[in-house]
Amino acid sequence: MEKIIDLLAGLQRPFINFLRIGIFIVMAWIGGLKAFQYEADGIIPFVANSPFMSFMLNSKVSDADNYKLHKNKEGEVIPENIQWHKANGTYVFSYGLGTVIVVLGILVLLGIWFPKIGIWGGILTFGMSIVTLSFLITTPETWVPNLGGPDFGFPYLSAAGRLVVKDVIMMGAGLVVASESAKRIKFRREVA
Fold it and tell me: Quick one: which of 31, 46, 65, 79 could link to 102 by a disulfide (CB 3.0–4.6 Å)?
C-alpha cells in the first residue's frame, strides 16, 4: 500500500495536467457543437429561462412560452422552427457561447505551460459552472414533469437536469487547476 501511496503522491502534477486536458476536450467538443443547428436548438430552454442569458435573445420573439412552441428534437429539421430560432437570435447566441466555451478550454489547457493563464482558465471554468448550475433553478425542463407518475419535481432530475448537475465536477476541476497554477507561481517566486 505504501508504494501505491508514494506513486499516486508523485503523480499529482501529471494527473492535474490530465484533468486540464479533460476539461479542454469537454469544452472544445461541447463548445464546437454549438455551431450546429441541433445543439443550438437544444440550449434554448436553458437560455430563454436564464436571467444571466435570456437578455441576449431577441425580446420580440423570445419569452418563456414561445420557445416551447418552437423546440426541435435532436436531429429534427422543421423549417418554421428554424426560422423562429433565427429571428430569436438562438444561432448567433449559440455561436458566441460556443466560442467562449472553446476559449475557456484553451485557457485551461495552456495552464500546463503558463500558470497565470491557467489561473484565469480555472477561475472562469468555475464561474461558467455556477451559471450552468443555475439552470437547475431557472429551467423547468431540468426536472421530471408531473405527467401522472409518482416521481416528479425535486429531486428527480430529467435528462437535461442530469446533464447540468455534472457541472459540479467541472466547478471543482476549475478550482483544482486554478489552485495548482497559483501554487506553481508562488513556488517560482519563492525560488527566485
Answer: 31
